[in-house]
């Protein structure tokens, strides 16, 4: 099985998509809230489908 190669989103990308400040994403990460990010060295990357799924789940939670 070959995994599809898709660019992972940076913190900047996720902040822009969600319309929130970057500091908010870092705060959420410390609180265990928000979309799942993976640390790669000193960088955090997000799978776009995870961010979108998290965002969609917030609609039903509100």
Characterise the protein shown here.
- By secondary structure, this protein is mainly alpha-helical.
- The protein has one domain (11-56).
- Helix content is 52%, strand content 10%.
- It has a two-stranded antiparallel sheet.
- The chain is globular, with a radius of gyration of 12 Å.
- It starts with 10 loop residues before the first helix and ends with a helix.
- 13% of the residues are buried.
- The model has no long low-confidence stretch (mean pLDDT 92).
In short:
This is Helix-turn-helix domain-containing protein. The protein contains three helices and two strands. By secondary structure, the chain is mainly alpha-helical.
Q: What Rg is obtained from the alpha carbons, in whole angstroms? A: 12 Å
Number of domains: 1
Which parts are unreliable, with pLDDT below 50 for 5 consecutive residues or more? none
Instruction: State the helix count.
Output: 3
Proportion of strand residues: 5-15%
> Structural class of the secondary elements?
mainly alpha
Coarse morphology: globular
Instruction: Give the end-to-end Cα distance, rounded to a whole number of Å.
Output: 38 Å
Task: Give the beta-strand count.
Answer: 2
Helix-strand sequence: HHEEH
Largest sheet: 2 strands, antiparallel
Helix content estimate: 40-55%
Mean pLDDT: 92
Strand order of the largest sheet: 1-2
What is the fold's blueprint, element by element?
Layout: H1 11-18, H2 22-31, E1 38-40, E2 43-45, H3 48-61
Antiparallel strand pairs: 1-2
């Amino acid at each position: 099985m070959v995994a599809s190669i898709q660019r992972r989103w940076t913190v900047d990308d996720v902040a822009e998509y969600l319309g929130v400040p970057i500091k908010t994403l870092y705060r959420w990460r410390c609180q265990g809230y928000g979309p799942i990010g993976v640390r790669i060295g000193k960088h955090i990357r997000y799978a776009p489908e995870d961010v979108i799924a998290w965002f969609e789940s917030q609609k039903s939670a509100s």
